[in-house]
Design brief:
Shape: globular
CATH topology: L-amino peptidase D-ALA esterase/amidase
Distance between the termini: 17 Å
Structural class: alpha+beta
Order of helices and strands: EEEHEEHEHEEEEHEHHEHEEH
Oligomer: single chain
Radius of gyration: 19 Å
CATH class: Alpha Beta
Strand order of the largest sheet: 4-3-12-11-10-9
Strand content: 25-35%
Length: 357
């Protein structure tokens, strides 16, 4: 069958309702863009850039509160020291492959200069996972122009998933991985907020893969779908981006970011020694103008945070699974092939355990 999102297959995870798009762009103002690089000459490239605008065109002038969490730190996310220092995110940010962090980070600076952003200096955020099994990473195919394209292409609305942008060459639980997204509507503090997640999934052992508690990775054996055998069991990385329109302070964003760990664990991520599992959370419920000396802010009361935590965990879980069900089989560097998660056997496994809607 053709590729599909998880719910299109009759499979639902979690308890909370989704947003209209079931995507990070359900948070008003958030935009996502991709630049996908697939070519065989002059080198084998299966890579790209994914860009996220947290607050629309005025992100540069009206920052959002943000924080990050490193579940396991064999990875890179630039700009995090400054986020720790002031708790603000005041620019778009990107996700790419490991060897392109530098050029994409510099491209974000160049993009700000090109658009005459009135800041004297820039410390942008760029994160990565490694795609060197399917892409010739040492040929450095990503350029400034690719980062610019992802930033310029960013839009609200549905988000492309699977083999796109920074997720083009990624592998997840021994199947083809990549970009995935999901969202949850959360009732708390007397109103309804949205929590959205976007992941670049490139981690995990097959036998650990679970969908709504079903041991799918063990149900789909190596005789049915050949292993990529690309890295030791469980190694790899995942970047998780969480967005919410709730009014959170930086410390609350950090608490939210930690909850991506729960969603990752539900799918089968364990934070292995060689994994870069880094999570960024931002909240648009407060906007911080650059030109005001004193700013009034709001916050969700601490005892009202638990539903937001659940939303973050559920959205992360489903975003990973959407990456898996959207991604397609890919052949790349040195003729290596990584197979997509087969959807018919996935449905059969879910039916066997009474989880298919």
């Amino acid at each position: 069958m053709g590729r599909a999102r998880l719910r299109e297959l009759g499979i639902s995870v979690g308890l909370l309702p989704t947003g209209p798009l079931n995507a990070i762009t359900d948070v008003a103002g958030v935009r996502v863009g991709h630049s996908t690089i697939i070519h065989d000459k002059p080198s084998i490239a299966r890579t790209g850039v994914t860009a996220i605008w947290p607050g629309g065109d005025d992100t540069w002038a009206r920052a959002v509160f943000a924080a990050y969490h490193s579940f396991n730190g064999n990875g890179e996310m630039t700009g995090t020291i400054w986020i720790d220092e002031q708790g603000l995110l005041a620019s778009p940010f990107c996700i790419t492959n490991t060897h392109s962090v530098g050029v994409v980070r510099d491209a974000l600076v160049a993009y700000a200069v090109k658009h005459k952003v009135p800041q004297d200096w820039h410390l942008p955020v760029t994160a990565e996972t490694y795609d060197g099994w399917l892409s010739d990473a040492e040929s450095f195919p990503v350029t400034q122009e690719h980062a610019f394209a992802a930033l310029d292409n960013a839009a609200s609305g549905p988000v492309s998933e699977g083999n796109v942008g920074g997720g083009t060459g990624m592998i997840c639980h021994d199947f083809k991985g990549g970009i995935g997204t999901a969202s949850r509507l959360v009732a708390t503090a007397g109103t309804t907020f949205t929590v959205g997640a976007l992941v670049q999934a490139n981690y995990g052992a097959r036998e650990l893969l679970r969908v709504d508690g079903v041991p799918v990775g063990r149900e789909i054996g190596l005789t049915e779908v050949r292993s990529a055998r690309h890295v030791p069991q469980s190694e790899g990385s995942i970047i998780v981006v969480l967005a919410t329109d709730a009014p959170l302070l930086p410390i609350q964003c950090k608490r939210l970011a930690r909850r991506a760990t729960s969603g990752l664990a539900w799918v089968g991520g364990i934070g292995s020694n060689g994994s870069g599992d880094i999570f960024l959370a931002f909240a648009t419920g407060n906007r911080i103008p650059r030109d005001k000396p004193v700013v009034d802010t709001r916050m969700v009361a601490p005892d009202q945070m638990t539903p937001l935590f659940q939303g973050a965990a559920e959205a992360t879980e489903e975003a990973i699974l959407n990456a898996l069900t959207a991604a397609e089989t890919m052949t790349g560097f040195q003729g290596r092939t990584v197979h997509a998660l087969p959807l018919d056997p996935l449905q059969a496994a879910m039916r066997k355990y009474g989880r298919l809607r």
